Amino acid sequence: MTYSPLAIKRRHVLGDIYDRCDHVESIPVYLDEKSDEPLGFVDESMGHFADAFLFHLPELVCKKLSTGHFDYIFDYEYAGRTAGNSSQKRIKLNGILLVPKKNKKDE
């Protein structure tokens, strides 16, 4: 199986939780449901100022991910309060689940 790294902007992946999410060293990525064996992993090895996640996944999954075939579901825990807004909690990601998008025809 060939693995191809794919860089995607953090803001695109995280959406509304972007401002609250802590830096990611390396977390597992699962396909469709959380299992014992992850599909690959994601990290921020491009550096803090690159502001992108680097997905290390099989080549076919990277192609589908880059063309918008998946939604993201996050496994996370709260890690404390954010700096300017004491009512919002920081988020520490533990994993990402890729869920295939449903076709409009399937609905």
Mean pLDDT: 87
Overall structural class, as computed from helix and strand content, comes to mainly beta
Q: Write down the Rg.
A: 14 Å
Residues in helices, as a percent range: 10-25%
Number of helices: 2
Give the biggest sheet.
6 strands, mixed
Shape: globular
Uncertain stretches of 5 or more adjacent residues: none
Proportion of strand residues: 35-45%
Q: Can you list the strand order of the major beta sheet?
A: 1-4-3-2-6-5
Total strand segments: 6
| Head-to-tail CA distance between termini | 33 Å
H/E element sequence: EHEEEHEE
List key phrases describing it.
mainly beta; six-stranded mixed sheet; globular; 2 helices; single chain; 107 residues
Précis, in short:
With 107 residues, this protein is mainly beta. It is built from 2 helices and 6 strands.
